[in-house]
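Input/output pair, single chain:
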Amino acid sequence: MIYFFSILIIISSLILFFKIRDRKLLKTVTTTNRGTKTERKLVLKLLKSKIPASTIFHDLYVENKNGNFSQIDLVVATKVGIIVFEVKKYEGWIFGNGNQRKWTQVLVYGKRKYQFYNPVLQNKKHLTDLKKQLPQFENIPFYSIVVFYGNCEFKDIDFIPDGTFLVKSRRVLDVINKIIQENEPAKYTNKKEVVKTLSEAVKNGENHEITNRHIKAINDMLGKHRIFE
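Output:
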């Protein structure tokens, strides 16, 4: 019995140690309560794969042409260009087409179906808004990675455009390595300017006026407050 409790204490100590270690590592990029849990999981995965913390930017808010702000889950600046991530968490079967506005989530063997906005188009808009933040971005390659967490399965998905990748979370590092290995170095004219711009977009997320304006714009787009039954 004493041996059993000793093992439990050791296991609990190890779990606590790893939690503290991960929390410290996460804080080199972001806070422990910013964004979603899946976004923070991805940040940790990137850090543990030895991607430098200085090149990872989490929860960015960039102003678009309408004066509103686009929220971007994650950006990584690499030697071959800028990788923009959209992070999702879904269960069940996922059906979609890269050109369709809506995708479909199917649960309980087809008994339940839900639609959601095409994440490929969603992240495409993020890339477009981000590219407009700096003149040099027009000459730097941008790549889109849509990462799915959760127990989901891709079914009949096609027409994913060039430079865009749809990936389950366990394969995300494979895709990043593929992008870096198969592309030429980007022609950055001023790397400090790039870091400054991305860092300012992260800082925008600390501004409650900006985040509230973003939430209001999303709610206004959905228009649910204009539905009366």
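Strands lie at 56-63, 69-78, 81-89, 92-97, 102-107, 112-117, 142-149, 152-158, 164-168. The chain has six helices and nine strands.
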